[in-house]
Amino acid sequence: MKEHLNRRFRRFPQISKTKCFLQWVCVNLCHLRMALLLLAVVIASGPSFAANALKPFSGTATDFAAQDMQGKPVRFSAYRGKVVLLNFWATWCPPCRKEMPAMERLHRAYRERGLVVLAVSQDEAPLEDVRRFAASMELTFPVWHDRAREAAQHISVPGVPTSYLIAADGQLAYRVLGEYDWSGKEAIGVIELLLDEAEK
């Protein structure tokens, strides 16, 4: 590279050579910085896009206990025989908040066919905080509070939001890690398939 620069700047005075060299360095540093920034964005966004996919999943939906918004004890086994969208979330989680409206639309569209949308809070905060959040979002589907995180001892919850589609026979059918559009065509297609199977 030194030989290349010497040939390039041979006709100029030394001060011009130095100035041009510094400009060349600055320009290339800027390009390098932009390339590193782009690489960081790709690395950061790529896995999340891949993770936020509705993927087949196998396992059994084990029973667990929680509290409803009135503070009464409830058990997941109460929904045995139903197709369930089981969503684990927290009040401090922006992606959780972002996907809630789509879950509400899904609930209103398919509750008559027997779909249960159930959001289980993993907050360590008091029940009142969870109740206030659910009210602010105008959620009409069941919202539970699992402060002890008992569900995570039976069903894998690597982070929030994590969601499962559970068939009427109690088998875990699909899982999504991260925010997901539950009113999109892919979700609707899978849910209608599960509901059709449950009605046979």
Through-space gap between termini: 74 Å
Average residue pLDDT: 84
CATH architecture of the largest domain: 3-Layer(aba) Sandwich
- Whole-angstrom Rg: 26 Å
- State the low-pLDDT regions, or none: 34-50
**Helix fraction bin:** 40-55%
CATH class value of the largest domain: Alpha Beta
- Tell me the number of structural domains: 2
Secondary structural class: alpha/beta
CATH-defined fold name of the largest domain:
Glutaredoxin
Give a count of the beta strands, DSSP E runs of length 2 or more.
8
Name given to the CATH homologous superfamily of the largest domain? Glutaredoxin
> Which sheet architecture does the biggest sheet show?
6 strands, mixed
Approximate strand percentage: 15-25%
- Helix run count: 5
Spell out the helices and strands N to C: HHEEEEHEHEEEH
**Strands side by side in the biggest sheet:** 1-8-7-4-5-6
Tell me the overall shape: globular
Assembly type of the chains comes to: single chain
Question: Concise description?
Answer:
By secondary structure, this protein is α/β, with parallel strands linked by helices. It has helices spanning 2-8, 14-51, 94-110, 127-136, 185-199, and strands at residues 55-56, 65-67, 73-75, 84-89, 116-121, 143-145, 162-166, 172-177.
